[in-house]
Amino acid sequence: MNEERRRELGQFLRDRRGALVRAELGLPPIGRSRTVGLRREEIAAFAAVSVTWYTWLEQGRDINASRQVLESVGRVLRLSAAEQAYVLALGGHGATPAMGDAAIETVPPHLQALLDAVDFPAFAVAPDWGITGWNSAYEGLYSRIATVAPEQRNLLWLVFTDPQLRQMLPDWDITSRNFVAEFRAESGPRLGSAAHTALINKLQAESVEFASIWAEHVVLNFSSRRRVFVHPEVGELTFEQQRLVPSDAPDLHFVMYVPTTGTPTKERLALLGAFSGTLPTPPATR
């Protein structure tokens, strides 16, 4: 476990310990407060580990934390499934190995062909959330994707720095928080890598809002959900956001915006030429 992952693990455990409600665990209040979190010695006792060892864990010291112990601590802290997976990933016990700094820059041709065959907006995201490929429907939805500098073609970066994209998202406050929480959940194995550190530092320097949300240490697994965009030319578009993982390229995720049934989204996308990649020919005038 590298230093940054140890530090993140310690901070995350401290935050979750402080958020626990003592009464829910059958513990008396500390002083006059009824909602103060647990003490370190109480977590250690419930998790059946030494107070010294748990203190070192929160302090980010270079110790080996077994999967069994981290799972025990997670149960005491009442972590969600996403939070528990994040803790295990930070401790080096994730389902996937830690990744290096090698970036995925383009989608393999056969997978780009799959994106092109889909008649609704779809794009491919690398582990660092770099957008590595997209189809014409997605370009119709978000036209800047084709012209933004490659080094800035990152989903998290664009959500927090592109005013055009922000204007298109009426629920930007909710969407941005979901993205940060999902990104954190997936970034455990990469914490401490040069590329990950550079992206986070750059976002914190560029966006006060990102820095504030990142400091909250919220972790969420991806879930399909409704997405609403307000396009400057055709108005409101409503989708069900889905994510697929190609079996032969598990490091890539396909994000797909499926038009919501019962809304005019599909017809409005067609007005942009999203399904064909070209704008419709205007009718001849008499």
Question: What Rg, in angstroms, do the CA atoms define?
Answer: 22 Å
Structural class designation: alpha+beta
The CATH topology of the largest domain: Beta-Lactamase
Helical residue percent?
40-55%
Q: Calculate the mean pLDDT score and round it.
A: 88
**Assembly state here?**
single chain
Number of domains: 2
Order of helices and strands: HHHHHHEEHHHHHHEEEH
Alpha carbon gap, first and last residue: 72 Å
Share of β-strand residues: 5-15%
Classified by CATH, the class of the largest domain is Alpha Beta
What global shape is seen? elongated
Assigned CATH architecture of the largest domain: 2-Layer Sandwich
Strands, count: 5
- Helical element count? 13
Please give the order of strands in the largest beta sheet: 2-1-5-4-3
For the largest beta-sheet, the strand count, sense and barrel status come to:
5 strands, antiparallel
User: Ranges with pLDDT <50 over ≥5 residues?
Assistant: 97-101, 274-286
InterPro entries: Lambda_DNA-bd_dom_sf, MLTR_LBD
Pfam families: HTH_31, MLTR_LBD
GO molecular function: DNA binding
Organism: Arthrobacter psychrolactophilus
